[in-house]
Amino acid sequence: MKKKQTKQRKPRSPSFFTKETIVVAGLLLLAFILRIVCLSHLKMNDPCFYSPLAGTDDLTYHNNAQQIIAGTFPKIPYGISPFYFYFLALIYGLFGVDIYIAKLFQMLISVATCYLIWLIARRMFGQTTGYICLALSACYGMFMIHAGLLLTETINTFFFTLLILLLLRFEDGCSVSRIAYAGICLGLLSLCRGNILVILPFVFVWMLFRLKEKKRIIIFKFLLFCLFCLLAISPATIRNYLVSGQFVPIRTGGDVALWLANNPYAQPWQQPPPGEYVQKMEREGSTCSEEVLKFIKEEPAKCLNLYWQRFLFFWSNQEIPNNMNYDLIRSYSWILKMPFILSFGFIASLALCGFFLSLSKWRRLFLLYMIISGFMIATLLVSVLGRFRLPIVSPLIIFAGFTLFWWYEKIKKKGFVMLFLSVILLFFSTIFVYSQTITNLFYPHFHPKGVVVDLPDRIIFRDDRDIYGSDFNLNNTIKKEIMIEAEPSNFEEVVLYFNLFGGNPAGILNISINNKEFEAPLQPSSGLLIFASIKIPPSWLKKGLNTIILKPKGEIKSSIAIDQSYSFGRSYWLLQSGEWKRLEKGEYMLHLELKKSVVAKSNAQGRFERKHFS
Higher-confidence residue: 604 or 443? Predict the structure, then answer.
């Protein structure tokens, strides 16, 4: 009998349409659609979409990009990190000066960042966790908001996420080409945000721990990594030297930024010190660097407290705004109001839980621990703002995704005891992330008289934390009540401060303080936040509750800033019926500073010093 000849099946070529490809493509498409819809809403509803506000970084980058195209860019060292306005200049040069096209490219870069997060998560925790992380990043609201602004944060986040992926590939073989790609990526990232170079020692520690090579070889490869980073930075350094004859690695003003964040009057967020302090520095001839060292050396307790406050804000659910009004932007697009659009509080709470749940894999995750630690320290050195911490969301999403996957596995395997313990862990991590919000909610109940800041030369009475959150049109009459827990006649001078938002505040305000009225002209000024101050006689004030009314005389194209941290119920606006309507959330950013007399200053200074050294 003849044996039947069996046909040999030809091996199938790998199909592009695998389950993984389809799922990833679908989630990336979701990310793209959400961003395009959001961008279209911003284009239709945002009056500043095509005309960035004066005083914002958006306008600075936009103008610098146009100057580069026209060949009129000033021949001075860069005053801000240069990469972003060259990126804008490239887009403007190719497609014309079209802000919509620039923001469209940023939306595409944001989608690319989602894909990089997927690659890292799949490598760290597997395919399913990768899917979850891709879905989380697709729906993360701040990625969408910042991609719709002419700011560096979308580019920063892309390069930061790419750097993590490139460094992870060192573990597969630390070749020269891989070192070069990672070094250049870090260099480009530092041209967007110079303080990111703080992560270098953390990368070195990770290389020593994870690379299976001799120490001297690892040191050589790290130095090579730094060399490629410097090569990427060098065009900016060379250009700065050619136009000024000075050695400026990336940009000027780095010491000023550090000083603004590290001085006796510094806050966890960006806050300029009082003019008297600056004048004192000028008289003494001290530099910004000297003042920073002096502050750390002479007031270590205050310095440590400042960094502790920044640490809390770094992990807080609150997004401290800078160059934008987050609530206003959300009002322009219903997409950003949807319940599936995720916040930092949601991601951070899950991520902190994921840190503990993934401790058994700590060796594999060591780079993420180092990168997060390095980035956090780089941010704490300056100011904790919502936009500055955006890049760290990429690794946090990876840990948040792992938490959700871990729960899925425990439910599938009926590990309800461990699941219950993890929920308790999530509860405490959520309490930590939302601690600032919880504190703000109860603060007025425990401190009903407001916020009192007792400084050596002045006392400040206010109802806010000096964090801009929203604003109220000044063409309406407003009323602010402030409690003063001191006798005003004992002070040398009283200054009324109030913060204005946007527009041109030129005009006249009719101001009433405890029924004593006067007119105050507002000088024309440009900027996003404008700090107005008016000296008033101490005799106009009284110990206890003081009433201040601001009434516009004519049209004023500006708004009074609102801090949404605390709600004491002492801010009002006048209805057409003549009744006062209480502000539903927050307080007007209006406060009083009572400057102490010479005798009071010396006494206060003595008390301050005794408290400091006790």
Answer: 443
Burial class for 468, CB neighbours closer than 10 Å (0-12, 13-18, 19+): buried
Q: Which amino acid is at 305?
A: N
List phi, psi (to 5°) of 489. -65, -15
* Residue 441, helix vs strand vs coil: helix
d(CA 34, CA 285): 53
Average pLDDT, the chain: 87
Mean pLDDT, residues 288-292: 85
Q: Please give the DSSP secondary-structure letter assigned to residue 197.
A: G
Helices (H), 270-325: 275-284, 288-298, 300-314
Q: Secondary structure of 21-62 in the HEC alphabet?
A: HHHHHHHHHHHHHHHHHHHHHHHHHCCCCCCCCCCCHHHHHH
CA-to-CA dists, residue 154 to 107, 264, 279, angstroms: 8, 33, 38
Token readout for 591 is: 């406060």
Running DSSP on this structure, what letter comes out for residue 273? Answer: P
- What is the per-residue DSSP string for 490-542? GSSEEEEEEEEEEEE--EEEEEEETTEEEEEEEPP--SSEEEEEEEE-GGG--
Alpha helix ranges (H) inside 126-175? 127-138, 141-147, 153-168
User: Rounded to an integer, what distance in angstroms lies between the CA atom of residue 395 and that of residue 351?
Assistant: 9
Written as one letter, the residue type at 372 is: I
Q: Which residue has the tokens 């904790």?
A: 384
Q: Does position 443 have pLDDT exceeding 60, yes or no?
A: yes
Q: Name beta bridge partners: 497.
A: 533, 591
Cα Rg, the chain, nearest whole Å: 27
Q: Which residues pair with 593 in a beta bridge?
A: 460, 495
Task: List 561's β-bridge partners, or say none.
Answer: 471
Rounded to whole angstroms, the Cα distance separating 391 from 371 reads: 11
Looking at this protein, which amino acid is placed at residue 98?
D
Here the tokens at position 206 are 């990770």
Tokens 């969408």 correspond to 144
DSSP code of 138?
Answer: H
Residue 524 pLDDT exceeds 90 = no
What local confidence, expressed as pLDDT, does residue 208 receive?
Answer: 93
Given a contact cutoff of 8 angstroms between Cβ atoms, the answer to whether 327 and 472 are in contact is no
Q: Pick the most confident of 99-108, 471-480, 510-519.
A: 99-108
Residue 213 has φ and ψ, to the nearest 5°, of -140, 170
Torsion sign (Cα): 248, 146, 232, 160: positive
Task: Give the 3-state secondary structure of residue 559.
Answer: strand
Beta strands 470-473 and 493-504 are: unpaired
The predicted structure's pLDDT at residue 144: 95
Closest of 562, 578, 330 to residue 570, by C-alpha: 562
Under the banding of pLDDT at 50, 70 and 90, the label for residue 322 is confident
Nearest alpha-carbon partner for 62 in 142, 151, 148, 144: 151
Q: Which value, to the nearest 10 degrees, does the dihedral of the CA atoms of residues 54, 55, 57, 58 take? A: -10
Lookup: tokens for 501: 């938002």
Cα angle, residue 535 at apex, residues 534 and 540 outer, rounded to 5°: 115
Match 């990232």 to its residue by tokens.
189
Q: Please check whether residue 466 is in contact with residue 389, taking contact to mean a CB–CB distance below 8 angstroms.
A: no
Integer angstrom CA distances of residue 234 from 65, 132, 160, 196, 358: 20, 39, 20, 16, 40
Band (pLDDT 50/70/90 cuts) for residue 613 is very low
Dump pLDDT digits (tens) for 374-420: 999 999 988 888 889 999 999 999 999 999 999 999 999 888 899 99
DSSP three-state, residue 570:
coil
